[in-house]
Amino acid sequence: MAKLVLYYVHPGNKYSHANKLMFAAARGIDGITTLDLYAEYPRFDIDIDREQQRLLDHDVVLFQFPMFWYSPPSLLKEWQDLVLEHGFAYGAGGTELDGKHMMLALTAAGNDEAYAVDGYQHYPIRTFLTPLERTAGLCHMQFAAPYVLYGALRAPDDGRLNTHVTGYRQLLEAIRDDRYDFATAIERDIVEVADIPTLVRT
Ligand SMILES: Cc1cc2nc3c(=O)[nH]c(=O)nc-3n(C[C@H](O)[C@H](O)[C@H](O)COP(=O)(O)O)c2cc1C
Known about the structure:
The protein is an alpha/beta fold. It contains ten helices and six strands; from the N terminus they run E-H-E-H-H-E-H-E-H-H-E-E-H-H-H-H. Strands 1, 2, 3, 4, 5 and 6 form a six-stranded parallel sheet that branches.
């Protein structure tokens, strides 16, 4: 069994449709650790020792968030700045995260055609995630392809949100049970719900 910690990072949970449902589904899964980062640290006073211990206690670190201004919400950046210390996560003696996986689950209002070089957003979504990808690399972590919901504002009404949430539950259970094919997922740009059956072993 892999030890999975899921950080939910959304500053406006009460206005959320997509992430709120995803997080509720995650919270219902036995054997994984889930936490709401803004609820724990509404004043950004992150407990570095507690967070580093959480990382030590888990093999897979998953950040779930809505895309805000082409980035994760700012508390995740503060968490990175404080928790991923030299000598712990990187640099001389900084080997505590070696071999662990980092994964993202994110929602974006833009649709998939928009997130392309010739699209409205000018870049693929992975381009906006390169700081986290390189952070994982610097910390000797494997960066797995993000689980993405495009067009998130329309998803509750066009029927895609429920499917996405079901896929998320399957994904998290598979990670927990060592049935998620990280080796294949790492080769992908992103994972969408339609990809789940090919990445989850039964
Ligand atoms: C402050 C703010 C900034 C946003 N920036 C982006 C953005 O850069 N790209 C994008 O595709 N959507 C952007 N959005 C839309 C959110 O990603 C979208 O509302 C969210 O993914 C929906 O998930 P939720 O229902 O869980 O809140 C932004 C929304 C807000 C409120």
